[in-house]
Amino acid sequence: NADSSVTLGQKVPVTTRLNAPEFVTNRALLRWISDIVVLTKPENIHWCDGSDAEWTALTAELVTGGVLIPLNSELRPGSFLARSDPDDVARVEDRTFICSVNEADAGPTNNWRDPDSMNAELKVLFDGSMRGRTLYVVPFSMGPFGGPISQVGIQITDSPYAVLNMRIMTRMGFDALAQIDDKTPWVPAVHSVGQPLVDESGLRIADSAWPSNSTKYICHFPETREIWSYGSGYGGNALLSKKCFALRIGSYMGLQEGWLAEHMLILKLTSPEGKAYHVAAAFPSACGKTNLAMLRPTVPGWKAETIGDDIAWLRPDADGRLRAINPEAGFFGVAPGTGEITNPVAMSTVWGNTIFTNVALTDDNDVWWEGMTEKTPSHLIDWRGEDWTPDSGRPAAHPNSRFTVPIQQCPTLADDWFESAGVPLDAIIFGGRRATNVPLVAEAFSWQHGVFIGATVSSEKTAAAEGTVGELRRDPFAMLPFCGYNMADYWGHWLALGEKMGANAPKIFQVNWFRKDDDGSFMWPGFGENSRVLEWIARRVDDEAHATIGAVGLVPSQGSLNVEGLDLNDEVLGKLFEVNEKLWLDECDLTEEFFDQFGDRLPSELTTELADLRGRLSA
Ligand code: SAT
Ligand code: MN
């Protein structure tokens, strides 16, 4: 019974109702929190209201405790630096599990564990894991409150660092909590860093600035929509709204309910004539997704505005158009490589109110990372807290160091971000980092062909030698680590939604900014010049730009891609679109091997598309 009193930890008697705010009456919610309290045995409970006062108090507490370093308030107001444990710096894919009832439902690309046995294991780990700590109840909304595509969740965590990041990354607090009534489904997510402050006999254990545990588990139970995360304080492992909910659990919810949870940025383009286009784009990591989301077009008259940089939830509306929201409220971006030249918009976004994790500290208490400025400072404190000079022979910032910043500080934020119905998508783009084969841009012949393109997204692991395809890291739909169920069923779901939308479905395109010439240099300038490709895509949406049928898709006809003013001769332009039949047929063999692992779950449409591609290449 949720209203009966429970005992917190070993000593603190707790009032009934677990310190819950008055307006919380949902018994299932109170029961769940009571169960977690009994299991994890925290010393206090704090319900996060999401207020400025709460932010101020919590950051002050963490500064006192040495968890956060306040940055120079003139250079970087309201901002802090956190340094993680050196062993807790990234997502842990080998410790990430999909615990579906049937192993086949997790599919060959996920780590699977039986839900009962995983539950039993987790109960042991979480037993007393919050002793001596505060348990935070973090209610959050993914997307605008009450929107038709939005969802709510509650994260329980013993990490105040996670609380602060959740407040930036989501719409967090009592307004989100108030969304939950007896009829509203919500996703329960439990997180513990796995480092109690008091042992079983009540003795205090020394704390650390970045508590964590060498044992880590990131577990998803798609059928019950639960998330359990243990042992890590790092972003993707600890901010459970993000990859765990918005992608892994979300993708499975989408399968059940007829929508899509995707690893995509959302961009609004406005033509010189004032017409708006909305595009969503999926790229594997390290392909410049955040840069594209904050693109500054070089094509005269075109405007680009940001709606999201990482996650998109897509749902057909009553008119059959695919609508998209960014369910997040902040950016959790990679710092290194972000600078005035590569991404000036991101640089102005992080002017203040930002939590930096694992970047370097300058002598005047500001942040620095590789690629931020042309000139490297002569002295820094590196991400581990050690003195650093340019000849230290190691990076000053961790390569996966991050900034967490409210999206509303982004100078190119589109008003549409606030739109609870989402934006109607005109185009979906898939991209990878390919030195060979994949043309600068190609339009899919059909939705089904587009799904095939998405399913075959890959990046080259090794620089391809001339005349070979480099070793491919497959990352279908950029969702390989994030799809909460069998990837073949996921492709089937995409196919079914396309069928349902028919002529209303957005057009699908493939892009590749990374093609190299024989000397190994990039042939396409990239960055702001990518707006030329986006312009062509927008013109294709309106059936204005001319396209030519190629073996791998519809490519720009002579003169239809705007390359005016670019230092790009016809030979290079030709090479950007070159399709070498032999190399492509080799790649088809690799695709067949890749598809084979899905056995008879593979939709037959993809087999058909592969056969058609081989046919076009051999013609
Ligand atoms: O997974 S995180 O959200 O921590 C960052 C990423 O890998 O995209
Ligand atoms: Mn991502």
TrEMBL record:
Recorded GO CC terms: cytosol
Record's subcellular location: Cytoplasm
Positions that bind substrate: 91, 234-236, 285, 400-402
Note accompanying the cofactor annotation: Binds 1 Mn(2+) ion per subunit.
Recorded GO MF terms: GTP binding; kinase activity; manganese ion binding; phosphoenolpyruvate carboxykinase (GTP) activity
NCBIfam families, per the entry: PRK04210.1 (NF003253)
Protein name: Phosphoenolpyruvate carboxykinase [GTP]
